[in-house]
Input
Amino acid sequence: NKGPKILETDIHDYIWPTDASTRITSSFAEFRNTHFHGGIDISTNRKKGHKVFSSRDGFVWRIRIQPNGYGKMLYIKHNDGFITTYAHLDRFSERINKIARQEQYKNETFAVDFTVDSTALPVKKGEIIAYTGESGVGPPHLHFEIRDQNFQPVNPFFFTNLYVSDNVSPVIKKVIIVPVDIYSSVNGSSQPFVF
Output
């Protein structure tokens, strides 16, 4: 037994990524129809235009814009290889938007997904990189993720400045048991069982 893997990053260096709120509407690893939620969703009280901050020093590594899914999204790479992501954005800061627009015009398409040279868009911790929105799917909110050097999602609540206290007891409304592959079943069926 190797024991738990230690995060190879400074868990005290990250800051909360928005001034919208500290209310979580979806938590890390919640089950979705086809996957587990890879980040946290932060409430913007159904409003657009709240500031989005770079959680740490780093550089814009990837810009992704699509009409569905995560909509407008930024990936910030940090010196230790960890990556923070920010999605469902309304708009980017001016200097980031300039690079995104150039790529859209170059490709003559709205939807783009490209990496940026590490020297092109450096960012400082706390710098405004975008504004919250409702691009992609869903009402206005900020989707935020932390990924390690292997691009694997990491629970943001492991990080001291990102922890949000929770005083609300859970209420279990239903339990679903799902067969994990073609060789498994629940009560003799390949369909999920809900009770």
Remarks:
- The chain is about 5% helix and 30% strand.
- The chain has a mean pLDDT of 92.
- The radius of gyration is 19 Å.
